[in-house]
Amino acid sequence: MADVLFIVTAGPGDAQRLDRLADELADELREISGITVGAATTAASPGTKSGTAIEIGQLLVSGGALSTSAWAIRDIVLRFLARGRAESVTVRNGDRDITIVRPTDGQVDGVVDQLRSLFADD
């Protein structure tokens, strides 16, 4: 499976706060066996020393266990959002994505189905 992008949205604030939130989510996602988590990067601006730049608030998650880990990913993201420091987490696979906002209890099961569909190989 290709890398899946996780984007943390935290509202107004500084980049350091958003970076800390993304690191917190990354640490929790790393507890899932069979997936890897790293910082999302992009090409750096011309003239800079490094060829890449880290995208603040974005994580790349990959591994063959993504679709089978949909329950664990959902639980981690929901706990992360329930702590109230982030507004939402968008999970993007290619041109498809879902945005998870603190859902009501009735919406929780639907999040798993949406994640499984997103992680399914085309």
Count of DSSP H/I helices: 3
Q: Provide the β-strand percentage band.
A: 25-35%
Q: What sort of overall outline do the alpha carbons produce when their principal axes are compared?
A: globular
Quote the distance from N terminus to C terminus.
Answer: 10 Å
Looking across the biggest beta sheet, what order are the strands in? 2-3-1-4-5
Low-confidence stretches: none
Major sheet summary line: 5 strands, antiparallel
The level of helicity is 25-40%
Order of helices and strands: EHEEHEEH
Q: Structural class, from secondary structure content?
A: alpha+beta
Query: In angstroms, what is the radius of gyration?
Result: 15 Å
Overall pLDDT, averaged?
Answer: 81
Please report the total strand number as a whole number. Answer: 5
Explain what the structure shows.
The protein has helices at 15-29, 70-82, 108-119, and strands spanning 4-9, 36-43, 52-62, 88-93, 96-101. The model has no long low-confidence stretch (mean pLDDT 81). It has a 5-stranded antiparallel sheet with strand order 2-3-1-4-5. It is of the alpha+beta class and 122 residues long. Helix 1 (15-29) runs antiparallel to helix 2 (70-82) and helix 2 packs across helix 3. The longest helix has 15 residues, at 15-29. Strand 4 (88-93) and strand 5 (96-101) form a beta hairpin. The radius of gyration is 15 Å and the shape is globular. 33% of the residues lie in helices and 30% in strands.
